Amino acid sequence: MKRILLRGDNNAQHVQEFLECHPHALRAGESPAANISGAAETVAEELAFGLENRGVAREDMQVRVLTAARTLGIEDVLERNPLQLSGGQTQRVAIAALLALGDAPLLLEHPLQGLDANGRQQVLSAFSTYPHDIMWSTPTRCGADELETATEVIDTGSPMKTVETPTVPWQIEPATLKANLDLYHPRSGQSKRLSPHQQLLTKISLTTSDGEVLVVRGENGSGKTTLLRTLAGLLPTYGGQVTVTGQEVAALRPPERVQRVSLASQHPRYQILTTSVADEVRAGRAADPSYTHALCEAAGLGEELGANPYDLTLSQQQMLATICALTPQPSVLLLDEPSASLNAYDTERLLALIGEFTAHGGNVICASHDEEFIAAIATRQIILSTTIS
User: Fold this and answer.
1) Where do the domains of the chain lie?
2) In what order do the strands lie in the sheet with 106-109?
3) Strand 247-248 vs strand 240-244: parallel, antiparallel, or unpaired?
4) pTM given for the model
5) Region 3-155: CATH code
6) What is the pLDDT of residue 131?
7) Residue 314 DSSP SS3
8) Which CATH superfamily is domain 210-224+256-384 in?
9) pLDDT band for position 181 (cuts 50, 70, 90)
10) What confidence category does residue 201 fall into, taking pLDDT thresholds of 50, 70 and 90?
11) What is the spatial distance between Cα 381 and Cα 374, in angstroms, rounded to a whole number?
12) What percent of the chain has pLDDT above 90?
């Protein structure tokens, strides 16, 4: 069987050729959440959804669902609501649903995006034994494991250019973030089989200071996104508090809060508010137009100001989300899997932006599985070791 890896982000021609050869291929797009049906209460029902539509016998369906779940290590979330999982867990559920069908070639966009090391190994192992052709794409650097899994590698990226140090007129107020809290995973809209809230981590205590890059690590489902959203004041703390230079984040009005701490999420499409890149950046209410223009140039979006953000590549959307989080000139920048969907050129741009932001007194808290990216930015690391099940 062919296992074709597209390395880069100019894949349209190769995808078209694959579909011409395999018109009945099963597809999963680049956004994990968009691959979930929304019609199932539990992950088990989500994995069975396609099988039910094909009239597969109940006994066979149960076997195929359990086999797919074991293959990708998601047995512990079978009774969870698929719309309430972490990004990496959602990715594995979407792929497992296709593996359960198992009767056609696969065409997958960025299937390793946001996966921890174990999830990555499980997905690549499944690719190696899948009984039909597979084509998948990755916009980022490829690990040796991915290259070894592929029977053919096609480079589709643009030639690398030199990334210049951004000339952004930073006006950052250096600050210290302190957090002492218990963390809960929200369950609104969850399956009725689950309690309203589930305690995730207790007695979290962390402090960051100006110029620091703190990387938060942990398996998929360990609470990295929940922690970042809590630090940003988007989720309640339930106990304890988060302060920036003595001010409690949760007590601040939103315009004041984002000047202290600002978050760029791992799902940039869900943050889009307007119909042009220029308006999207201006929505952050930066006082100085020259500052927002410089941010756009530093992010490689200077020629895309009139473009609809939905028409950008996923890599460009992630860069847009990052500079939108920087627009209010926060003291603390929170980044959730910021490099997961970036091409090589935008990764260099992001590294340059982070370097300049911290050099001017800002501090960064970043959740990531990207070992190379972590090595390039981290001044300190913490590991979250509890996984929701």
Assistant:
1) 3-155, 210-224+256-384
2) 26-28, 106-109, 134-138, 3-7, 152-155
3) antiparallel
4) 0.85
5) 3.40.50.300
6) 95
7) helix
8) P-loop containing nucleotide triphosphate hydrolases (3.40.50.300)
9) confident
10) low
11) 9
12) 69
Residues 251 and 300: beta-carbon distance below 8 Å: no
Contact 315/343 with Cβ under 8 angstroms?
Answer: yes
Contact 224, 216 (CB under 8 A): yes
List, for residues 311-370, the tens digit of each pLDDT value.
998 899 999 999 999 999 999 999 999 998 888 889 999 999 999 999 999 999 999 999
Phi-psi region at 130: left, alpha or beta (left = phi > 0; alpha = psi -120 to 50) = beta
Residue 250 zone, left/alpha/beta (φ > 0; ψ -120 to 50; rest): alpha
Mark out the alpha helices in 360-386 (DSSP H runs).
371-377
Contacts of 41 (CB under 8 A, 6+ apart): 81, 191, 192
Mean pLDDT of 50-70: 96
| Residue 14 burial (CB count, 10 A) | 16
Q: Which residue has the tokens 């460009």?
A: 316
Could you identify the residue written with the tokens 């809209």?
A: 189
Q: Around 318, how many Cα atoms within 13 Å sit in the side-chain half-sphere? A: 25
- Displacement of CA 4 from its chain's centroid (Å): 23
Q: Which residue has the tokens 């099988």?
A: 51
The pair of structure tokens assigned to 250 is 């949760």
- Whether the pLDDT of residue 121 is over 60: the answer is yes
| Alpha carbons 82 and 43: distance in angstroms, whole number | 5
What does the mean pLDDT of the chain come to?
89
Tell me if 3-155 shares its fold with 210-224+256-384. yes
